[in-house]
Amino acid sequence: MNNFTKIITLLCFTAAFTACSKDEDPIVTVPASDGSTLTLNGLIGAEAGTSAGNSVFVDFSTDKQTSVARASWDLGFYSGTEYRVILNHSAGATAIATTKTNLNDVTAADTTSLVTSATLALGQGAGLFTTIDPIEGTASAYLAGTVIQAVSATEADNKVYIVNRGSAGIDGNRGWQKIRVIRNASGYTLQYAKITETTFRTLNIAKDAAYNFKYASFATGAVTVEPEKAAWDIEWGLTTYKASATTPYTFSDFVIINFVAGITASEVIFSGTTANSTITYANFTEANLTGITFVGTRDVIGSNWRNTTGTAVGVKTDRFYLVKDGAGNIYKLKFISFHPNDSGVRGKPVIEYKLVKKA
After folding, report:
1. What are the residues whose beta carbons fall under 8 Å from the beta carbon of 22, sequence distance 6 or more?
2. 331-341: per-residue pLDDT in tens?
3. What is the full DSSP assignment across 36-71?
4. pLDDT in tens, 2-57
5. Per-residue pLDDT tens digits for 124-158
6. CA distances for 112 relative to 99, 117, 325, angstroms
7. Do residues 283 and 156 lie in contact, with contact meaning Cβ atoms separated by under 8 Å?
8. Cβ-contact 237, 55 below 8 angstroms
9. What is the pTM of this model?
10. Which of 57, 167, 169, 186 has the smallest C-beta neighbourhood within 10 Å, fewest atoms?
11. Nearest Cα to 48, choosing from 353, 340, 288?
12. Most distant CA pair in the chain, distance
């Protein structure tokens, strides 16, 4: 075999080997994180920690946190089979339906009685639970109970709503807006204007199955808020909740699980009379999962993890949480600090989580 023939043979062999290797390249799967300690970035600047400007989304399996300004959005549009629109719970937004279907027919005069009665106010001694989205319960209850009713396929059935954008812990008067939502071929069409304006803008929001919701701001249009639904487990920040059984209120340092995407959790109290009274965060293992009940309610963690009054202000040290992510991994989660009393910084809580059971 002459040298030229040898070279041609070698090149053919190399090409064939390379093609075979490319065809057989394995799919690389990144394993779920074994756990980490994170300081959540709730502060945008010099604002008070009780009014931290960010909501923070955390994905345990990738050790990733995503901070998003609470004031960056106004409405969320559900990407599932139903046509539902949510209010900005992290700003204390409220809304009420009118009997009208034309935005231009709604004027500042329609708000006079709302201002007098404080119907769209939010805080202790004001506001109604009927003007906010559900604050607790399962995903199905949450979606079924939104202030803005399901967007009808019959366009004439979709009413105009008056929205108080909310200002909880946010500088400036965000004002009132009038909106109407109708369906389009890919999702939603939002019609919106300030309450005093005589013309309105439109914005099309397409559904995207990778996300729970797609978001819009009255100021900037379409915006990105929460990560893809498979890429976060909990959200920390300020949210609309309740001061009592009759009074809606905004809570700082509130933790919501990704309940719309099917994330579930359980609280484990290891002092007192619970069944797990001798099981601490440190010694909890997969063997201890027997008998644990996971639930998919919005406030299963909520504000239960910390004290903000009295002499015991700080993280509660008698409990931790179990979180089952969308892939089936189970993590144990505890809060380390959030307040000067526990050597923390308000607005930058520290959490620790460990993988208990791999999917």
Report:
1. none
2. 999 999 999 99
3. EEEE----SSS--GGG-SEEEEEEGGGTEEEEEEGG
4. 544 444 444 444 444 444 444 555 666 789 999 999 999 999 999 999 999 999 99
5. 556 789 999 999 999 999 999 999 999 999 999 99
6. 16, 9, 46
7. no
8. yes
9. 0.89
10. 186
11. 340
12. 100
d(C-alpha 238, C-alpha 223), whole Å: 19
Q: Report the Cα–Cα distance between both ends of the chain, in Å, rounded.
A: 57
CB proximity list for 291: less than 8 A, separation 6 or greater: 275
Tracing tokens 């089952």 back to the chain, one arrives at: 324
- CB hemisphere CA count around 155 (13 angstroms): 9
Structure tokens at 10: 């070698």
Identify the residue whose tokens are 């769209």. 120
Q: Which two tokens stand for residue 258?
A: 């990704």
Give dist(CA 295, CA 264) in Å, integer. Answer: 5
User: What is the torsional sign of CA 231, 299, 332, 340?
Assistant: positive
Res 87 pLDDT > 70: yes
Report which of 331, 350, 268 is spatially closest to residue 56, judged by C-alpha positions: 350
Q: How far apart are CA 32 and CA 63, in angstroms?
A: 9
Per residue in 251-272, pLDDT (tens digit) is 999 999 999 999 999 999 986 5
Q: Are the C-beta atoms of 320 and 351 separated by less than 8 Å?
A: no
Which pLDDT band holds residue 173 (cuts at 50, 70, 90)?
low
Would you state the structure tokens that stand for residue 247, as one six-digit string?
């009074």
Tally the residues of the chain: 359
